[in-house]
Every structure is written in structure tokens, then in C-alpha cells.
Amino acid sequence: MNYRKTLLAASIITSLCVSATVFAQDTTQGTPAPAAQTQSTTTQTTTTTTQTVQQANEANAKNATNLVGITVTGIRASLQASLETKRNADAIVDAITATDIGKFPATNAAEALEQIPGVTLDRSIPATQRVSIDGMDPSLNLSYLDGHPVAQAQWLFGDSPNRGFNYSLLPPEILGSLQVYHSPEARLPEGSLGGSVFMNTVKPLDVPANTVTGSVGLNYNDMVGDTRPDASVFYSWHNDDKTFGIDVSAQHYEQITSREGEENYGYTKVSDVNAAALALPVPNLAIQNELNAGTIKGTDLIPNQVSAANFQQTEKRDDVNINLQWKPVDNLTTSLGLMYMRDNLDNVNQSMYPWATHNPAGITSLTEGPNGIITSGTQVGTPCFNSTNCVSTANTYTDNNARHSTVTTKGVDLQGVYTGDGWTLGGQAGVSTSRNPQSAVVKEIFYGGGFDWSLAHGAQYTDPLSANNPNYWADNGWGGNEETILYKAKDTYGQLDFTKDFDSFFNELLVGVRYASHWESQVENAYVGAQQLTLNQIGYGGLTDLSGMSSLGLSPSMVTHVQTAGSAALFNAVLSTPGFGAAKDANVYWDDTWNVQQQNSAAYAQLNFGNDDVHGNLGLRFVHTEITSNGYNIPGDCAAADSFDCIFPAGFGYVGQTRTFNNWLPAFNIAYNVTPDFILRAAASETIAYAPYNQYAPYFEANDTVLTATAGNPDLKPYRSANFNASAEWYFSEQSVFAASVFYKDVLNYIVNAATTQERINGSWTIPGYAQNTGNSQVQQGLCTAVGVCQYDVTAPVNGGRAKVEGGTLSYQQAFSDTGFGAKANFTYSNASTSKGGALPYNSKDSYSIGPYFEQGPYSASVSYSWRSSYLAGGYVAGAPATYIDGWKELDASLGYQIDKNFSLSFSALNLLNSKYYAYLGSKTQLSEQYVTGRDYMLAVHFKF
Asked: How far apart are CA 344 and CA 169, in angstroms?
């Protein structure tokens, strides 16, 4: 158990006690409330669970600033509403209204967030999921919808851990506003180091009765060459007395995603490959001859595979969100929120990788490039005709993965606020569940013909006619398999808050308690024994025409090569095997089945203060955390047998452990109005965050072909960080601001991924054909023993010591008088490192965004250009090493035309530069992956009645 109380915490406890005495004195003396009290009370924004206690006090403020996006029209009006939220907040806050999300190019809420200083996006998958705030890993920022968490099941096989919110699953149409808190308050839920995002839906009593809005549109990607529909509708009603109301929003969205490019799955030393070449029954002396000649060195690194990667996904998302409000009496308001989301994310991923290091017998030449990287080579071999047991000195494998993935998310949220004479009592409770019964099949077909390869252009087959003939492709000793993952997540929460008003400088006391439980589990099975087939038997789908690879300068063989007939053909080829489904791989089940539960019990006290010149808050939050991790502990002889018949001795089997932590989290925010239009702010706090849930699980997810793996660590401690923020904001005219901020985070426990080598039984060794083909090569290279005990490169999280993040932001926004023109821009500098000098994941040192806009009469237009410098990112498949991502730039644009008061048109274009996502290891010459995803175009008709 960990217990910690800081000096800052002790100081705030003392302040709370002293202030309580002042409250008592002021109340008994009957001191009238100063004029500034109204400002302090109404500056709180409706963004968190604790603010159910403030809704009554804030109703007038919300109407005054029009924060509910449905009542705000136009770019300039929405920007003004966002500035009012920022200006009146006690903490350091940025905001966006629904009109921002609708008018600026955005397919999800994450892309709208990029307008906020300090926010950067990761673009590995076109539908943006990972959002960094103030230079912190996306997993260290939490997001809430109407003050509560939303459960999220993992959607992609082998996806890297991520506790952060998956914005691709949330339609922006349901949002009325969102706020980003860069500095915390004691009343806010714990768990974020970078920042907290609070998203708010539209409530029926806040908009006119019988409001109807919506849109119908089309999405088009120029790399896919196909069009998909989307539509949304919102209806809101309330009775004449505004005591009961209901609103319903529904959306259907479709998008075809294409990601095309080149991948390489790690590097091997020349000396290791040469040793395997010399150990062959007929030694290959080609590498040794080049070593003797001095044209290459033993320490040089050879890319293992140069893969043509093609990820295709058709997303179909349906969402329904319902809000009911009931005011049985004037001082009691209740609301019920219901949510249903179903997101179908089926995809096919083909990776065609000529594999130079897999069979060194065919290597005839290697060429050394900069930084000790072998940049090109030649492999000779002979293709086999209609053979499922081809033997050649050149090996090309094509992994054809078809995946069924449908995430279903449901939620019920109940809130209530009762307002007394100078006090308010509020509560919130609910549950959110998400599940995804994923299934995936793989067929790994083989071609034995020779090829030339280079990192710059990929592989080019020596005999393209044979390589593009399906008769020369077939399974080779292994017929593939099927894997299923039942992934579940559940959030249960409850909160009670009490607010007491006082007639003094310290004008409001907030106290409350919160309980939150998150449960997450995975059950994985691998079904083995699929039949070996030729490509024609699987289903030949013709030749690819991958225009994205052409834009990267890749070879004709990378752009045009054989492919299967798609998902249905792949599933049928595996599942139609006689008797298939009876044999399961025990090691896969044991290594990848787990569950984790985290329970947080918290209590807080916060004082709000303010007068005409200064306002803010100080408070303290106490959090008790209990994390229980369950998974399989398997003895070595059971793993070697890979059989469910193994009997576990005492201490083995499905076991668990529980760890508890106690943390005191102080928070202080102050804002000083130097003039009515110039505000200085400062904040100090201590925060905690937690590793992704599956990192706490005792799991081991391996890629047996390339001998890499990821593992969990139940002994992880929470991240802890001491934070300091300051800002200066000048509101020099309407819809205009110039602001500068600085931030410093001293992270006292930063969790890092550590790479180790572990000796384990290869779970695929008993699969028919594996040991005879892939296994033989691994034995020749000294990576495995003859019985399948292999050296795995394992990446696992560890408590990594201290880290720090320091930086600042500049932001500018201005409407140029009555010209209709305006501009937004921001710049962020973030310098981060661990105590050992390593980089922090997802931290870009520099990033900026520039967004001019025009709006006058019925016409509107905006352009947005953003850029971020290189950063460290996590691997996206099991055991893949962390990679560096090169600088990313994006240009988006949108046009709008208001036909009349009821109808408007919009056209948006995203990723107009078709930017390249480039990942590398160590230096930029050490390619890991590079992709393009094409340009997206969206045309929509909007209506409002």
C-alpha cells in the first residue's frame, strides 16, 4: 500500500479549516454578498460530474453565453461563445461549441480538438483515436460525456494499449460543447496528467420545443474511389411549462478507410544472418565474401521484411442518444441519459513481405547505406507451381487477415439537482458497457520466386509474370487459423455533491464523494488445423492497384500483386476445413485471457473565492485506488505440451493479485483581472494517472513468426505528477484574444516500456507445418531450439522513475472588424524527457495550427493547416518496438452556403496534402513503416426547423 501527503496538500487542508471559520463569522454577521459573487458562481462550466450541484446557479449563465451549440449559429458566434467559457473559467480552460465542430472540417470530435493549443493528434489510423494534451501520452488524458466515463472495448486485433478515449467511436453530432481543462480542480475526477476533456450533449430544456436539425451527406476518399452515405437527425421537445422535455439524436455514418504503404518488422545483424548462411548444409558464402571485401560490416542491420501493406476497412456506425429532463418542482431538476452505439469495423489487412533474413541460402548481394543500415539486396529462388509445400531459397509470404469487429456500447446516466436556500445537493449515477466479440482468420500464402529489394522502393520480383500468376501462390506447410477475442468493458459510477454559498470573499464551499469502478476483460482463443490450399482454391481476387504506394515511389511489384477475393473468401477457406473448430491452442488461451478491475473511491473539498479583481479555487481530493489483476500462471511443462489436459499444481492456474494506493491531490487555481480585458492565471496541483488496464494483466501476447511479444505487469504503480501552470490572456476585441501559457509537469513515477529477452516455448511449434518451415529457419539462426524453446524480444511496462514536461503555448484569434474575415492560430512547445534521457511517448517538441476563415451573408469558408514535429509512438502490433514518427502536416478546408433559414450546404476536404505517415527506429534511415491514407471529401445538406 502507498500513502502520500504533500506539503501543498497540508497547506490546503489548513486553508480550508481557516476559511470555514471565516465563513461562520461572515454568516453570523450578515455580511451582504459582494457584486463579484455572481460572477464567481456563474463562471463554472457544465463539464463534469461534480457540476450537477451547480446547474441551477448556472442556468442563466448558460443562456447568456449560448454555450449549447444548437442555439449558436455561425463561425463567429461560436468562437465568441467558446471565448466566453475560457474567459470566465477559474482554471486554465479551452472550449469548442458544436458550431465549431460543424463548421470546421471534422469527422470526429478529436479533429475539432486540434484547434485547441496544446492538443496534437496521432494519424496512424485515419479515424483519429489518440489525442495528446500538453505533450502527454493519450492514455494519460481522460474524457467524459456529460460528466461520466464511456466504456470502450478494443476494436483492433493486436492494438497497442490505450486508456485514452477513442474519439472515432463518438459522432460529433451529439455534442453541444466541449471543454479541455489544462489545470485540474479538486472537484474534477482524477486520472489525467495532461488534461481532461468534458463533452456535453444538448439538453431538451435548453432549446426551443420542437427543434429539428440534421444533415444528409456523402463521404468520398480519392484513394478508395468509392462514396459512402451519412445522415443525422436531432429532435427536441418540452412542454409549455418547461417542466418535462425529451430530445433524441440519431446518426448513421459510413466511411471506407484505406491505408497503403510499406512496413518492415524489425532488423537483424549481418553477422547473425551470415552465421545462419554458413551453417547451411550447403553454405552460402555471399555475405562472407562481402564482409571480407569490406563493403558491408557484421554490425550492419538488415531489414527482415520489406512488406507491401494494404489495410482496408468499411466502417458503419449507428448511434442513438436520448436525454430526458424532469422538473417536478422549481428547485428540483432530474435528467436521464440513454446511449446506444454500434460501430461495425470489419477490415482486411494484407501484408506481402519478401523475407530476406528468413532464408539466407538465396542471398547473393547486400548494399550498405547510411548509419549502418543495409538498404538493398538480392535474393534468388525458384517459384513452385500449385504446390502447398514449396521449397525455395527465396521466401515471400502474404499474410491475409480478415477481421470481424463490431463494438456495441450502451449507457444509462441519471442526474439530479436540488436547490435549497443558499445550498445545493446533487447526485449522479450510471453504468456504461461495451463489448466486441472479435474474430479473425489468416491465410499465409507463399511464393518462391527471386526478388530485388530496397528500403526506398520495396521489392521487385525477378519474374513479374510468375509473381502475378495465382498458380504460383499457395499455403506452405501451414493453413492458417482463426482467432476469437471476446473483449468487454464496464464502467459503474456514483457521485454525491453538496454546495454551500457564503456572503464573503470565499463565496462557495463544495464537498463531495465519488465511486467509480472499471472492469475490463479479454478471452482469446485460437483454433488450429486449417486446410492448406492454393490461392485459386482460397479465391483469387485479381491484381491490386495500390495508388497510394505509387505516390510513395514503391516498385511495380509493391503496387501490383496478387490478392485474395476478400473477407468472405478468407473466412470460408479456414472455417470450411472438415472438423475445424475442435482444436484450440492452449497457450494462446492461457497467455491472452485476463481481467482487470479498478475501483476508485474519492472525496473532495473545494473553496471558490472571488471579488471584482480576483477569483479562483483551492481544494483537496483524496483517492483510494484498488486494482485487481487476474490471469493465468502456467508451469513450463504445460506450456511446452500446449495442451488443455495439463494439470496445474498449487499456485498455478487462473490467479490474481490486488494492490491498493492512497493519494492526496491538492489543486489551486487563481485568476487576476488586471483590466477587464486582460487576465493573468496561475495553477498548482498534484495529479495521478494509471497505465492502460490490460498492462496490469499478467498476459503474454506473442507473434511467433517474428518472435516478439508484449506482456503485462500487475505491479505497476500509478503515475504521479506535480504540475504548475500559468497564463496571460488579452481579449482585445470581440471574438478576439491573444494568450500565452506555460506548463511544467514533474512526473514522479513514469511508466515506460522495457525490452527484455525471454526464453519461452513457441506456441505455434505444434501447429502442422510450422516447425518444418518457419521453425527450421528459426533453429538455423539460433533463435529456437529443436523442440521450440525460443528467444522472444518482449516489451513490458515497468515503473520507470521520474520524467518532466515543460513548455508553453501561444494562441491567437481575431475577427477582422466587419470584413467577414478572421483567423485562429496556436503554437505549442513541449520539451519532455525521462530521468534516463529517453523520450516520452507522443510528445512533439513543436506543433502549430493556423486557421483563417470567412463568414459573411450566406457564405462561409475556412482553411486549417496543422503541423507537429517528430515524436515517439508505441508499436501497433504484438511486441512491435516503439517507433518514432516523422513530422506530420495536414491541410483541411471547408465551404458553406446558407440557402435559407432552414437549409444550408457544406463541403469539407480533409488531408488535402495526402501526407505520409513515416515511422522509423533510431534514425530516419531505419524504416519501420510508411503509409498514405488519401484525401477525404464530405458533402452534406443541413436542415433546421
From this structure: 10
Q: In what order do the strands lie in the sheet with 708-711?
A: 700-703, 708-711, 789-799, 751-761
CATH code assigned at 207: 2.40.170.20
Give backbone dihedrals phi and psi of 553, rounded to 5 degrees, phi first: 80, 20
**Has residue 472 been placed in a domain?**
no
**Phi, psi for 183 (deg, rounded to 5):** -120, 135
Domain count, the chain: 1
Q: For residue 883, what pLDDT is reported? A: 85
DSSP secondary structure of 299-335:
T-EEESB-EEEEEEEEEEEEEEEEEEEEEEETTEEEE
Residue scoring higher pLDDT (577 or 158): 577
Q: What's residue 446's pLDDT? A: 96
CA distances from 659 to 76, 652, 656, 688, 894 (A): 51, 19, 10, 16, 51
Are the C-beta atoms of residues 727 and 92 closer than 8 Å to each other? yes
Alpha-carbon dihedral sign for residues 562, 564, 565, 567: negative
Specify the residue for cell string 501559457.
Answer: 741
H/E element, 469: none
- Contact criterion met (CB below 8 Å) for 335 and 325: yes
Backbone phi and psi for residue 381, each to the nearest 5 degrees, phi listed first: -170, 175
Got the DSSP string for 350-405?
Answer: EEEEEBTTT-GGGEEEEEE-GGGBEEEEEE-----SS-SS---SS-EEEEEEEEE-
Residue that has been written with the C-alpha cell 443562456 in this structure = 63
pLDDT at 646 over 90: no
Nine cell digits for residue 104: 470546421
Q: Distances from the Cα of 410 to the Cαs of 176, 322, 323, in angstroms?
A: 20, 12, 14
Inter-residue contact 104 to 864 (CB < 8 Å): yes
Q: What is the C-alpha separation between 407 and 319, in angstroms, rounded?
A: 12
Task: Look up residue 139 and give its three cell numbers.
Answer: 492514455
Report the C-alpha gap between 444 and 400 in whole angstroms: 6
For residue 612, what are the domain limits?
A: 7-264+309-352+403-442+482-528+584-763+792-944
Query: In what helix (H) or strand (E) does residue 640 lie, and over which residues does it extend?
Result: helix 636-641
Long-range contacts of 62-68 (CB under 8 A, 24+ apart): 62/206, 63/206, 67/95, 67/97, 67/176, 67/177, 68/98, 68/176, 68/177, 68/202, 68/203, 68/206, 68/207
Distance CA 796, CA 754 (A): 5
Report how far residue 693's alpha carbon sits from residue 928's, in angstroms, rounded to the nearest whole number.
27
If you average pLDDT over every residue of the chain, what do you get? 86
Model pLDDT, residue 660: 96
- What confidence score (pLDDT) does residue 376 get? 96
**Amino acid 96: pLDDT:** 84
Q: Does residue 602 register a pLDDT over 90?
A: yes
Amino acid at 636: G
Residue 109 identity? A
Structural element, H or E, at residue 271 = helix 270-278
The 10s digit of each residue's pLDDT in 700-716 is: 777 777 788 778 888 89
For 372-393, b where at least 16 C-beta lie within 10 A, e where not — what string? bbbbbbbbbbebbeebbebebb
Angle, helices 55-65/75-88, rounded to nearest 10 degrees: 140
What burial class does residue 851 get, using C-beta atoms within 10 Å of its C-beta: 0-12 exposed, 13-18 middle, 19+ buried? buried
Q: How far apart are CA 295 and CA 284, in angstroms?
A: 17
Torsions phi, psi for 823 (to 5 deg): -155, 150
For position 537, what pLDDT does the model report? 97
State the average pLDDT over residues 369-397: 95
pLDDT value at position 608? 97
Is residue 782 assigned to a domain? no
**630: DSSP letter:** E
At residue 577 the predicted structure's pLDDT band, cuts being 50, 70 and 90, is very high
CA distance to 375, 697, 923, per residue, from 302 (Å): 8, 34, 14
| Residue 436 maps to a domain | yes
Any domain includes 469? no
Alpha-carbon distance of 441 to 404, in angstroms, equals 9
